Amino acid sequence: MRAKCPKCGAVFEKPWQPTLVHIGSIKSLKCPACEKTSMMHTNVKDQVNWPKEEGAKSEGSDEADDLSRRIEESKYE
Fold this sequence. Notes:
Layout: E1 2-4, E2 11-13, E3 22-23, E4 26-30, E5 37-41, H1 61-74
Antiparallel strand pairs: 1-2, 3-4, 4-5
């Protein structure tokens, strides 16, 4: 079952489970991205975008990683 959070827009795979609160294919679920519970459509065709891929880094993250590594190493000098 693929669901889309109306609050943050995350599309995630959710294993099927019986839900007490539902209206057809709209179910009350907790979003793993924003951790908020809301009524979500469960028959969406959008591509899954949660969880984020670990290999994908934003620009500038290499510089920040390098700086934090150098600071960590300088503690022992």
